[in-house]
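User: quick one - fold this with zinc ion bound?
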Amino acid sequence: MTSPFPNIYQLRRVSSDNAKPCTICYKSTQAVLVSSPDFFYVCESHLKDKQFCTVKYADGEDGKDAEYQSLHEEVRSLDQKATQIQHKIQQRESQLAKVRDYLWKPKDDENQPDLKKQLAEIIKQRDLASAKLEKFIKAYTRYMLDAVFYKSRLQQHSKKIRQQQIVQKLNNGTLFPSIPDLPKP
Ligand SMILES: [Zn+2]
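Assistant: Sure. C-alpha cells for the protein plus zinc ion:
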C-alpha cells in the first residue's frame, strides 16, 4: 500500500492571528509542518530535536542531500583557503617587520600585494558560495519525522478519512440498511 503522503514535511509559517497549539506540547505556535494533504502545528524548537525529526534536503520526493553536501563542501574549502592565505600574509608581515626593524628601512615584498589580491578573490568566491548555500537551504529544507510520529500522522489521516466517509454516508442515508417493512405506528 502506498502511503497517502510522503514523510517529507515542509515548514510553513502562518500569521500570529492563525497561531494554534503545538501538537506536541500545546504551546501556541505559528509554525506548520506540511506534507499535503497532511499538516500539523508544531513549535520550531522541536524541529531541532533528533528524536522528533531529521533535516533532509529535497524537492518534492527528489532527494537533494548530495547537492547540499557539495555546496557545503565548497564553502568549507574556500573558507579554509582564505584562512591559509591570511596566515601567509600575517607570517610575511611579521617577518617583514623583523627585517625592517633590523635594517631601519622599509623593505618591499613583491608577493604581498599578490597574496592580498588572492585573498580578496577567495573571499568573494566564498561569499557567493555561501549565498548559494543559504538560498538552497531556504528552498529545499525538509523534515523527516521519526517513524513513531509519522505512523501516528498516518493513523490520524485514516481516522479523518473514515470520519468523512461516515458523515457522507449519513448525509446520503446509506449508513444504515433500509428496513422497508417497519410496522407503522
Ligand atoms: Zn511544542
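One thing worth noting: The pocket of zinc ion is lined by residues 22, 24-25, 27, 43, 46 (CB under 6 Å).
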